[in-house]
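Follow-up to my earlier ticket, as requested here are the two runs.
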Amino acid sequence: MFLAVTSRDAKNWRVLYRAAVAETDITRAPRRISEAEDAAIGRVRELFYLPGKIEEKEELKHAFRTLRALRGASEDFGVSEPMPMKQAA
């Protein structure tokens, strides 16, 4: 599930990544993983045209591998992506 990612979300991808890794509620994990993946993808897009930033690019690679493993583990437990929450009008 690809969510709309703001530039601020993309720059704060680490916060969302850490929240996904630290989530202990298996029913909330898929949503946290998706949020982190989406923010990391947004950051990758921002970094594509920037020279340098090698360390952050390596961190992102590691994060994607970890998030993929977490997603696999949650799927092994039969937990899938929950339906999106309705936004308050």
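Run two:
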Amino acid sequence: MANTATNISTRYCFARTPLPPADLIIGKMPSDPSRRRRFGRLVCCLRKKKHFSQEKFAETMGVLRPYLSRIETGRILPLLDQHVKMANALNMKLSEFMSETWDKILYPRSDD
């Protein structure tokens, strides 16, 4: 009986494979300082357009102001969950937020 249970659990067990490094998943964006800086400037512009101070925006996102400052100055690139928090704080859909930021960075137009 124990042998059967072992076979069943082994048969239905999914292999746990580690995820590839984040920079491979999103096309080496984190290691590109110019993209980080441009993202930070766009976040800052969106924040100011909604009349948020850095302190109030960070509070609304649920993060500390120095963390937001590092994002806006391009020193760090936030993970996706922080993108969601930024979009929510700006009362935007995530797709709108991504369009206002990453679409402009990855697919720049001459009038941007």
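The only thing I checked on run two: Residues 33-49 form the longest helix (17 residues). Let me know what else you need.
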